[in-house]
């Protein structure tokens, strides 16, 4: 496994594979890797000849009062984990490598589907994601890119971006990896106190309960209300509990699949999760 920290170095490392027309898979991450990230790499290894994993804490996707400075940076540990799952190249650039000193005059904005959910709570977040993903895709030029369904809105935004700009790659969504108690794995879970960690699985429990209730024919509005009450009773501060179509549109027809979304804070830690309820016939 190679580690590259410059765009030039990465391009040189990828060049033989590109000339040999090898299939390149790409997994963008912010590091502090866990099994969720590693499962993206495992999926990439199944269909690609060579897998690149980027580790870059992207400043443009953090708001002014968010955790950019304190976000865990664990490159050495991450590189051992990646070697074990067969990653071929780690791309770990410094901020200065990705954002040169000359002022940038280009923005990438995906509209409409970024208005609600996390886009509402985190203004500018998806502009930052769209920008870094576009830059990384241009640098790596992969055939396939792998994103987690845990960040469902991000996955849909990236799929839209790739479609709208005719980017020559396929985006693959990978199911959420969970702890045994159901909590979706996240680098931010490390911020939880042990008391908060014990409460955190209630998010997935409420999603599963809601799925069951919807399948039994309960009304969506009351199911969402029950989720809110349940989470509040367990000490969560709710950011949103919502249902959307898999394309992130509001639900008008109940013969299609529904995605239930939760974002809620436990203390200072903001957690997100989602669950798909299949109704489409
Ligand atoms: P991050 O490092 O948090 O930016 O995540 C990098 C990639 O890993 C994104 O595509 C995430 O959706 C994905 N990811 C993070 N946590 C999980 C998880 N628990 N299961 C599946 N994918 C995940």
TrEMBL record:
Gene3D superfamilies: HUPs, Pantoate-beta-alanine ligase, C-terminal domain. InterPro entries: Cyt_trans-like (IPR004821), Pantoate_ligase (IPR003721), Pantoate_ligase_C (IPR042176), Rossmann-like_a/b/a_fold (IPR014729). ATP binds at residues 30-37, 148-151, 185-188. Its EC number is 6.3.2.1. CDD domains: PanC (cd00560). (R)-pantoate binds at residues 61, 154. Catalyzes the condensation of pantoate with beta-alanine in an ATP-dependent reaction via a pantoyl-adenylate intermediate. This is Pantothenate synthetase. The gene is panC.
């Amino acid at each position: 496994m190679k580690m590259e920290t410059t765009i030039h170095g990465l391009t040189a490392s990828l060049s033989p594979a590109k000339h040999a027309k090898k299939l390149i898979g790409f997994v963008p991450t912010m590091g502090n890797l866990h099994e969720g990230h590693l499962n993206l790499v495992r999926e990439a290894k199944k269909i690609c000849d060579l897998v690149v994993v980027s580790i870059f804490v992207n400043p443009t996707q953090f708001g002014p009062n968010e955790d950019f400075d304190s976000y865990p940076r664990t490159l050495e540990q991450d590189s051992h984990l990646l070697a074990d799952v067969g990653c071929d190249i780690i791309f770990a650039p410094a901020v200065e490598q990705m954002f040169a000193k000359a002022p940038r005059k280009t923005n990438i904005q995906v509209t409409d589907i970024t208005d609600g959910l996390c886009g509402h709570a985190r203004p500018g977040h998806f502009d930052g994601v769209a920008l870094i993903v576009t830059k990384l895709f241009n640098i790596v030029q992969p055939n396939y890119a792998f994103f987690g369904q845990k960040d469902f809105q991000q996955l849909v935004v990236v799929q839209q971006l790739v479609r709208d700009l005719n980017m020559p790659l396929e985006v693959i969504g990978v199911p959420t990896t969970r702890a045994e108690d159901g909590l979706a794995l996240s680098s931010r879970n490390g911020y939880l106190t042990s008391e908060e960690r014990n409460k955190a699985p209630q998010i997935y429990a409420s999603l599963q309960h809601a799925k069951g209730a919807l399948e039994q024919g309960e009304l969506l509005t009351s199911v969402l209300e029950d989720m809110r009450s349940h989470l509040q009773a367990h000490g969560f501060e709710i950011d949103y509990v919502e249902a959307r179509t898999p394309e992130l549109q509001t639900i008008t027809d109940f013969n299609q699949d529904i995605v239930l979304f939760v974002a809620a804070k436990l203390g200072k830690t903001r957690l997100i999760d989602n669950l798909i309820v299949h109704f489409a016939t």
